[in-house]
Write a structure and sequence with these properties.
The chain has 180 residues and is mostly helical. The chain has 10 helices and no strands. Helix 2 packs parallel to helix 5, helix 5 runs antiparallel to helix 6 and helix 8 packs across helix 9.
C-alpha cells in the first residue's frame, strides 16, 4: 500500500518529516508514489490526497512548499487530466517554484490530447529558460541538436554556440544530466 511500510508507519514518518521541515524528502516520497518507484505502488490519487490533507493544511504551508503543486501536476498528468495538471504547475510557478515550467510545457505538448505545436513548444522552452529552469535549458539544447544536421555550416556554428550556452546554463543551475 505504501511501499515497504504500513499505513501507520507511513503516516508517522510523513508527520515527522513535516514537523522537521524536510519538504524535499517528502517530495521524493510523493514522486515515488506518483510514478511507482522504489518499491511503491503507483498511486497518483493517494499522492494528491496526501498533499491536500497533510501538507496544504493552510496558506502558509502552500508558500513554504510550492513544489508540491508541481507534484500534484505530475499526479494529474499521470491520471491523464491535463487541465488540472496545468493548473497545479501554474500555481507552483505563481508561488515561486519556477522549475515547474518545464513540467508544464511537457504537459502542454505531450498529453493524450495534445497536438504537437512547434511554436508552443519553443514558447514554453523560452519561458522556462527566462525563469532559469535548468530542465528547459537542457531541452532547448537537445532541440538544437535535433535540427543541427538540417542546417548549413554557418547555421551549425551558431547552433553549436547556443547549445553550449544552454548546456552550461543547465549545469550551473543544477541540471546534472547536461554535464554529460
Amino acid at each position: 500500500y505504501y511501499g515497504s511500510v504500513n499505513k501507520e508507519t507511513y503516516d508517522r514518518l510523513m508527520d515527522t518529516a513535516l514537523e522537521k521541515g524536510s519538504g524535499m524528502a517528502i517530495r521524493k516520497q510523493l514522486l515515488d508514489m506518483v510514478y511507482g518507484l522504489h518499491g511503491m505502488k503507483a498511486n497518483p490519487k493517494k499522492a494528491i490526497d496526501t498533499i491536500v490533507n497533510k501538507i496544504y493544511i493552510n496558506e502558509e504551508a502552500e508558500k513554504t512548499y510550492p513544489y508540491f503543486y508541481a507534484v500534484m501536476g505530475d499526479a494529474y498528468r499521470k491520471m491523464d487530466n491535463e487541465t488540472k495538471a496545468d493548473e497545479c504547475y501554474e500555481k507552483a510557478i505563481d508561488l515561486g517554484y519556477f522549475e515547474a515550467s518545464a513540467s508544464r510545457f511537457v504537459n502542454k505538448i505531450s498529453g493524450p490530447n495534445a497536438e504537437f505545436n512547434r511554436e508552443m513548444f519553443n514558447f514554453f522552452l523560452d519561458f522556462g529558460c527566462d525563469e532559469k529552469d535548468p530542465d528547459c535549458f537542457l531541452y532547448r539544447a537537445m532541440e538544437g541538436m535535433h535540427f543541427y544536421d538540417q542546417k548549413n555550416a554557418a547555421q551549425q556554428q551558431a547552433i553549436t554556440e547556443k547549445i553550449k550556452e544552454d548546456l552550461e546554463a543547465a549545469v550551473s543551475l543544477g541540471q546534472g544530466r547536461a554535464a554529460f
